[in-house]
């Protein structure tokens, strides 16, 4: 939305461009947080298929990567 050609074509002024950029930044952050949450949920569903022993082995193998998703 903020390419130079689009700004000219839509006649976006500097104030609008700043607001659009800030909104885009906030949305990107929200999306990243949602993706992290969904990844953690997906991993948990997958790990629930493992036995306790298999899960422990998996967690020992990948270490903090599992903890960082939560």
Structural write-up:
With 70 residues, this protein is mainly alpha-helical. It is 83% helix and 0% strand. It contains 4 helices and no strands. The protein has helices at 4-10, 14-47, 52-62, 64-69. The longest helix has 34 residues, at 14-47. It is rod-shaped and about 60 Å long. It starts with a helix and ends with a helix. The model has no long low-confidence stretch (mean pLDDT 91).
The run of helices and strands is HHHH
Structural class: mainly alpha
* Rg measurement, Å: 21 Å
Mean pLDDT level: 91
Low-confidence stretches: none
Could you tell me the strand content as a percent range?
Answer: under 5%
Biggest sheet character: none
How much helix is in the residues? over 70%
End-to-end separation in angstroms reads: 33 Å
Helical segment count: 4
Gross morphology is: rod-shaped
Give the tally of β-strands: 0
Q: Which secondary structure elements does this structure contain, and how are they paired or packed?
A:
Blueprint: H1 4-10, H2 14-47, H3 52-62, H4 64-69
Task: Give a quick precis of the structure.
With 70 residues, the chain is mostly helical. It has helices at 4-10, 14-47, 52-62, 64-69.
List keywords for this structure.
70 residues, mainly alpha, 4 helices, rod-shaped
């Amino acid at each position: 939305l903020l390419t130079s050609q689009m700004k000219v074509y839509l006649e976006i002024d500097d104030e609008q461009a700043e607001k659009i950029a800030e909104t885009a930044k906030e949305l990107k952050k929200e999306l990243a947080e949602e993706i992290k949450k969904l990844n953690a949920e997906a991993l948990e569903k997958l790990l629930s298929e493992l036995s306790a022993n298999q899960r422990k082995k998996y967690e020992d193998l990948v270490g903090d990567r599992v903890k960082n998703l939560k």
